[in-house]
Amino acid sequence: MLIAKSPKAILFDLDGVLIDTEPLILQALKKTTKKYNIHLNNKQLESLKGRRKIDCAKQIYDWTKNKEFYNDLLDSKKNFLNIDLKMAKPFVGAIKLIKFCREINLPIALVTSCGKEIFNLKKSANPFLNLFPTKILGDNELIKEGKPAPDPYLIAAKTIGVETNQAWVVEDSYAGALSGLRAGCFLLFFSKNVNEFNKLVTEFGNKKVIHLENLKELIDFLKTNFK
Question: Which pTM value belongs to this model?
Answer without folding.
Answer: 0.89
